[in-house]
TrEMBL record:
One matching Pfam family: GHMP_kinases_N
Entry GO MF terms: 4-(cytidine 5'-diphospho)-2-C-methyl-D-erythritol kinase activity; ATP binding
NCBIfam families recorded: ispE (TIGR00154)
GO biological process, one term: terpenoid biosynthetic process
Protein name: 4-(cytidine 5'-diphospho)-2-C-methyl-D-erythritol kinase
Protein EC: 2.7.1.148
Lineage: Eukaryota, Viridiplantae, Streptophyta, Embryophyta, Tracheophyta
Main localization, broad class: plastid
Domain GHMP kinase N-terminal stretches: 164-240
Keyword Nucleotide-binding among UniProt keywords: yes
GO cellular component: chloroplast
EC top class named in words: transferase
Compartment(s) of residence: Plastid, Chloroplast
Length: 412
């Protein structure tokens, strides 16, 4: 039998420890749902743990070699930081998920071409969609109910039944996967409705992502993207990485590298009046739309950056017919913001006007009674990583022109 003599040359201990682990001041991160972004910051690593944990334990064992009569030395190094991280990762993987809070960002259409009307009554489009940092916060909790989801929100006028895209998305997920999980959902609404910003579509995409986290990610991102097109044309876009060239009804999504710097600020200005998408399309005349090749717009944007001449929106003219004051607002922003904005355009079917290049609105918005109730928000372009959801910006605000605002709540 081989005899071994072991000598400890370094050790780690902490007299203040009050748990199974030495130096129990180390706090485990909350469970991460399949390492998804947007749920919470990435799990903390422990390089900054107390000094007693930073000292690594080294053990040398010396044993005779049977045949040669020589001694063989083996050194084993034990790293407490690494061990604690391994245990935290195991908890991360195995602890059941019961609550989840996600950021649900909206989008702008940097350009939007309508190319034809289809036989099914829909229109084909070609557009650069880009996610921005304005968004809602949605909290999901597992419900004991086996029959229905329960939705609440902080604003009035939002349907809470299966007319809401969040509920539609959860029903769709259960239909596609056979999941039997139902949820309590609270929607903290920051994105205005009827704004052309895709807030409802983003909510639906976020709900699909959340449901998949609660079900151990049994569907791929591609699955979620394809399924989502069944309940809304803009929803598949949010499963891109944040910048995409979209065609068809909007459901054909081509991921592209962000053609615009993420550091460029913008301001969103929306009057209280909304634009009905159906009404805007009713007034659309294809013979009056631009004939510029949308791929040429994308190429110019990628090469030269954002400028007024690439920010074409074929829905502006019919939207201005539906809401004449919107045309006046855009013209005034362009006139007052010369040198301030690189481009001013309407997003989607309206009624939000976007000024790219500055986070500040023109002064007339604050000074004139006519605009005291407009919605204002600064924003930036944002993206996400694969297998992570969008992260809430560190600080963002949305206000009306009188200054009544609400900062985004932090993730929990």
């Amino acid at each position: 039998m081989m005899m071994m003599a072991a000598t400890a040359v370094a050790s780690s201990s902490c007299s203040s420890s009050s748990s199974f682990f030495p130096c129990s001041r180390v706090v485990f991160p909350p469970r991460g749902a399949c390492r998804s972004g947007g749920v919470r910051p990435p799990p903390a690593r422990y390089g900054s743990s107390p000094s007693c944990l930073r000292r690594r334990a080294s053990v040398r064992a010396v044993a005779p070699e049977p045949k040669a009569g020589k001694q063989q030395q083996l050194e084993v190094v034990y790293d407490p930081d690494e061990r604690i991280n391994q245990l935290a990762d195991k908890v991360d993987r195995e602890a059941p998920l019961s609550r989840l809070t996600l950021f649900s960002p909206c989008k702008v259409n940097v350009f939007l071409r309508i190319t034809r009307k289809r036989e099914d009554g829909f229109h084909d489009l070609a557009s650069l969609f880009h996610v921005i940092s304005l968004g809602d916060i949605i909290k999901f909790s597992l419900s004991p109910s086996q029959t229905k989801d329960q939705l609440s929100t902080n604003v009035s006028g939002v349907p809470l039944d299966d007319r809401n895209l969040i509920i539609k998305a959860l029903n769709l997920y259960r239909k596609k996967t056979g999941s039997n999980k139902f949820f309590w959902i609270h929607l903290d609404k920051k994105v205005p409705t009827g704004a052309g910003l895709g807030g409802g579509s983003s909510n639906a995409a976020t709900a699909l992502w959340a449901a998949n986290q609660f079900n151990n990610c049994i569907a791929t991102e591609k699955d979620l993207q394809e399924w989502s097109g069944e309940i809304g044309s803009d929803i598949p876009f949010f499963f891109s990485h944040g910048a995409a060239y979209c065609t068809g009804r909007g459901e054909v999504v081509e991921n592209i590298p962000p053609p615009i710097s993420l550091d460029i600020p913008m301001v969103l200005i929306k009057p209280p009046q909304a634009c009905s998408t159906a009404e805007v399309y009713k007034r659309l005349r294809l013979d009056k739309t631009s004939n510029v090749d949308p791929l040429a717009l994308l190429e110019k944007l990628s090469k030269d950056g954002i400028s007024q001449d690439v920010c074409i929106n074929d829905l502006e003219a019919p939207a201005f017919e539906v809401l004449p004051s919107l045309k006046k607002l855009k013209q005034r922003i362009m006139a007052a913001g010369r040198g301030q904005y690189d481009a001013v355009f309407m997003s989607g079917s309206g009624s939000t006007i976007v000024g790219v290049g500055s986070p500040d609105p023109p002064l007339f918005v604050y000074n004139e009674e006519e605009y005291k109730d407009v919605f204002l928000s600064e924003a930036n372009f944002i993206t996400r990583e694969s297998n992570q959801w969008y992260r809430e910006p560190a600080s963002s605000t949305a206000t009306n022109a009188c200054g009544a605002g609400s900062g985004f709540s932090s993730l929990s």
